[in-house]
């Protein structure tokens, strides 16, 4: 049975116009597709810097080997880190040495979705409008990878600007685009761990600390791997505001930031509630110390090394301050410590005596002992402060003098430690002019390696180096060069000469010159030239200079490595021309090294940041003397410590060294310069003590001569060196030449059959003390 057809309860729909909805859809797709195309083209244009509109991008090679500045490290011969050269103090660390708490703190704070994105956090980008509506306009969406791109490639510096970068509103978009592009490329080239390692090795933490390795040492004096949870949180908190959150200057603000980092770690389940509560309850405990050029081992030496390596770096296209080089030096850290300690111990006492010596008086005096007028006013014109004021006020004397006399709060050096004072620049100059200074160098004469170098009393306050940079008259420490020439001309150590006056006739307007002995007169007694050198007798030295000729003395000085200008004048044998400790130490080393002059050597090798050897250094040597002459001079110089009346007998009688030591003291006019040179079979030491200006000195040989003002440094130093058996300095006698000597050295028949020596255990009496007195020019 068929049912009749019925109408539907729903009216039939009108047929839609063909293409109405599909046209809108197509429009959306066109707009979307066009936007994508524009975005692609824009991104491509930025990446290739189309028409230089956007500024350059790092190339693929740079991305594969991103470079941040790494501090170059300087090591001692015994493997101790001495210091660094840097513009940015950064030393990288491996990922394995990063504590998990540090990594977790960084991710929780800076990029919680770090493991899930490929350089760009689209979820974070999409949330920006929401947070802007809420008023949080400072909230960013940069991922850790984008931040790394910004740090590594300086995307926000002017050197990366193109033509459109100066259009208002476009600069930020272009910069962000670059960071997105680089971030994606970094994610393609590196693992997440590598990106985290690069980030933590690159980030700035303030206080001149770049990278977490230096930051951990600066703030906590420990390596990163030993950081605690709260210490890790504090360092991560510094990344986005190194100065604002600095725990030294802003401790309360720093703690709030640290605790917020800990709360983020708790929020994202990196730590549980008990761990969070325990961490925030702890106070900030710092072991704060900022690395700089004033700190570390042998700062004067490291400064000189940097000067010597700059030309090598330029020639080999290396950056001494950014390439992370490893520089291995000749310094022995133990000897360096003992040298610095000896300088400090002796100079503190010297300064105390100097202050008492000039108490209530000004020490800057002329040759006649009269006060030098306007000394400070003249001296201050040589300072950087005066030049700055002169430029600032166009030479207006009233303005300049006002600021030179204006008192400021400042820190000054003292032997009791730094102290804060109110001083004017003129006050400060007067204060420091009263200080005595010193220089010390020790080298191995057999290979030229410098083992200790102290260029001054305090590098932070006195940058001037008195080892190589400073040159002063060496006084009688120059006499061995005269005696070397004499030995080479056939004179025996036992050759006799009376202590009488020698006069150099007037020449070319120069008045006749008769050098006097230290005591002012002549005894008329006969001495061997070995005794004469031991007693530092001017009369016999003058006779030798006259016999040999000043030109011969100068030629021997050059042969022994003296490069400073030496005048061929009658006073040449008494050290009238300026030389350095550096030069004189090299000259004396020739005596110990069988006549072979060896240039003092500072560096043994340089490695790149990966440990590849870039250069190895070898000693520079040349034959300067015969082996016999060199040994005879070593024998002659021992007399200073063994002969009665020798200027260095205190080494035997006072310091009681039972070993063979060659020595020579030196003192210049008015006691402006005190010198001492000491020799053992494998160590030659040179030292100087004096004022910054030659007009500042002791007034008496009882204080200012070399045996008093300089020699004790050597005694203190060698006492420490001999006591440290790990150094292994030689205590053996000086080695004799392989061939028998051709001349006589046993001078006992000239002493009535007895050696005129001082037993090691004999104490000095007043007569001996007078005999030790050194000489003037």
Summarize the structure.
Helix content is 40%, strand content 11%. Strand 6 (408-412) and strand 7 form a beta hairpin.
Question: How would you describe this protein?
Answer:
With 777 residues, this protein is of the alpha+beta class. 40% of the residues lie in helices and 11% in strands. The strands form six sheets. The protein has a five-stranded mixed beta sheet, with helices on one face. A hairpin with a 5-residue loop joins strand 16 and strand 17. The longest helix is centred in the first third of the chain and has 29 residues, at 20-48. The chain is elongated. The model is unreliable at 1-14, 135-139 and 753-777 (pLDDT under 50).
Shape: elongated
Counting H and I runs of at least 4 residues, what is the number of helices?
29
Low-confidence stretches: 1-14, 135-139, 753-777
State the major sheet: 5 strands, mixed
Oligomer state of the chains in this structure:
single chain
Strand order of the largest sheet: 2-1-5-13-14
Distance between the termini: 149 Å
Strand content: 5-15%
* Rounded radius of gyration (Å): 37 Å
Number of strands: 18
User: Structural class of the secondary elements?
Assistant: alpha+beta
How much helical structure, as a percent, in the residues? Answer: 40-55%
Tell me, rounded to a whole number, the average pLDDT.
88
Domain Glycosyl transferase family: 82-265
Pathway: Cell wall biogenesis; peptidoglycan biosynthesis
Transmembrane segments: 27-51
Subcellular location: Cell membrane
SSE layout:
Elements: H1 20-48, H2 60-64, E1 72-75, E2 81-85, H3 100-110, H4 122-126, H5 128-133, H6 144-153, H7 170-189, H8 192-202, E3 204-206, E4 209-210, H9 212-220, H10 229-238, H11 251-267, H12 273-280, H13 299-315, E5 326-329, H14 333-357, H15 375-380, H16 384-392, H17 397-405, E6 408-412, E7 419-423, H18 425-433, E8 436-443, E9 450-454, H19 479-488, E10 496-498, E11 526-528, H20 529-535, H21 538-548, H22 550-559, H23 581-592, E12 596-598, E13 603-607, E14 613-616, E15 621-623, H24 627-642, H25 650-653, E16 662-667, E17 673-680, E18 683-691, H26 701-704, H27 706-709, H28 711-723, H29 766-772
Parallel strand pairs: 1-5
Antiparallel strand pairs: 1-2, 3-4, 5-13, 6-7, 8-9, 8-18, 10-11, 12-15, 13-14, 16-17, 17-18
């Amino acid at each position: 049975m068929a049912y009749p057809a019925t109408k539907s309860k729903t009216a039939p729909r009108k047929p839609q116009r063909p293409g109405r909805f599909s046209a809108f859809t197509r429009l959306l797709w066109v707009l979307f597709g066009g936007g994508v195309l524009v975005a692609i083209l824009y991104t491509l244009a930025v990446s290739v810097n189309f028409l230089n509109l956007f500024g350059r991008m790092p190339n693929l090679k740079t991305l594969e080997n991103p470079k941040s500045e790494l501090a170059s490290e300087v090591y001692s011969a015994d493997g101790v880190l001495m210091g660094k050269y840097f513009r940015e103090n950064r030393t990288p660390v491996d990922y394995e040495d990063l504590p998990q708490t540090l990594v977790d703190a960084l991710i929780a704070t800076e990029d919680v979705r770090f493991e899930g994105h490929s350089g760009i956090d689209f979820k974070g980008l999409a949330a920006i409008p929401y947070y802007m509506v809420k008023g949080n306009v400072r909230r960013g969406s940069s991922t850790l990878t984008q931040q790394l791109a910004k740090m590594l490639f300086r995307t926000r510096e002017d050197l990366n600007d193109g033509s459109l970068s100066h259009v208002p509103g476009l600069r930020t978009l272009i910069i962000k685009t670059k960071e997105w592009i680089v971030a994606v490329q970094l994610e393609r080239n590196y693992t997440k761990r590598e990106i985290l390692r690069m980030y933590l090795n690159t980030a700035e933490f303030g206080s001149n600390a770049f990278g977490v390795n230096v930051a951990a040492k600066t703030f906590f004096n420990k390596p990163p791997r030993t950081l605690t949870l709260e210490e890790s949180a504090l360092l991560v908190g510094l990344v986005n505001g190194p100065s604002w959150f600095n725990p030294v200057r802003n401790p309360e603000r720093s703690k709030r930031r640290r605790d917020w980092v800990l709360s983020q770690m708790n929020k994202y389940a990196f730590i549980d509630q008990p761990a969070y509560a325990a961490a925030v309850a702890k106070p900030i405990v710092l072991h704060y110390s900022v690395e700089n050029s004033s700190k570390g081992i042998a700062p004067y030496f490291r400064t000189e090394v940097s000067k010597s390596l700059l030309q090598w770096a330029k020639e080999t296209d290396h950056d001494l301050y950014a390439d992370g080089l490893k520089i291995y030096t000749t310094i022995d850290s133990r000897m360096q410590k003992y040298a610095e300690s000896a300088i400090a111990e002796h100079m503190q006492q010297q300064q105390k005596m100097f202050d008492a010596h000039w108490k209530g008086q000004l020490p800057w005096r002329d040759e006649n002992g009269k006060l030098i007028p306007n000394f400070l006013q003249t001296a201050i014109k040589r300072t950087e402060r005066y030049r700055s004021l002169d430029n600032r006020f166009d030479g207006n004397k009233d303005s300049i003098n006002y600021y030179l006399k204006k008192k400021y709060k400042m820190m000054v050096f003292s032997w009791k430690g730094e102290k804060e004072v109110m001083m004017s620049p003129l006050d400060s100059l007067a204060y420091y002019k009263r200080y005595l200074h010193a220089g010390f160098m020790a080298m191995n004469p057999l290979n030229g390696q410098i083992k200790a170098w102290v260029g001054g009393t305090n590098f932070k306050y006195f940058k001037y180096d008195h080892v190589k940079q400073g040159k002063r008259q060496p006084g009688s420490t120059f006499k061995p060069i005269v005696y070397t020439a004499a030995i080479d001309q056939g004179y025996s150590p036992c050759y006799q000469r009376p202590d009488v006056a020698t006069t150099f006739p007037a020449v070319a307007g120069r008045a006749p010159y008769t050098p006097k002995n230290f005591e002012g007169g002549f005894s008329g007694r006969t001495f061997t030239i070995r005794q004469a050198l031991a007693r530092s007798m001017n009369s016999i030295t003058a006779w030798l200079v006259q016999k040999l000729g000043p030109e011969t003395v100068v030629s021997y000085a050059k042969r022994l490595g003296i490069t400073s200008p030496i005048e061929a004048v009658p006073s040449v044998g008494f050290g009238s021309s300026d030389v350095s400790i550096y030069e004189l130490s090299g000259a004396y080393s020739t005596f110990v090294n069988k006549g072979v002059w060896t240039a003092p050597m500072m560096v043994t090798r340089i490695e790149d940041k990966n440990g590849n050897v870039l250069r190895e250094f070898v000693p520079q040597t040349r034959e300067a003397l015969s082996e016999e002459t060199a040994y005879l001079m070593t024998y002659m110089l021992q007399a200073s410590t063994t002969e009665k009346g020798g200027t260095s007998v205190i080494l035997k009688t006072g310091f009681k060294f039972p070993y063979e030591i060659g020595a020579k003291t030196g003192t210049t006019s008015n006691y402006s310069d005190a010198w001492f040179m000491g020799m053992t079979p494998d160590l030659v030491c040179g030292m100087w003590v004096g004022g910054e200006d030659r007009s500042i000195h002791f007034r008496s040989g009882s204080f200012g001569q070399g045996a008093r003002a300089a020699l004790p440094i050597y005694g203190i130093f060698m006492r420490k060196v001999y006591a440290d058996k790990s150094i292994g300095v030689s205590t053996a006698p000086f080695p004799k030449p392989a061939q028998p000597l051709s001349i006589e050295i046993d001078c006992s028949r000239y002493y009535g059959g007895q050696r005129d020596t001082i037993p090691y255990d004999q104490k000095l009496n007043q007569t001996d003390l007078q005999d030790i007195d050194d000489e003037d020019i």
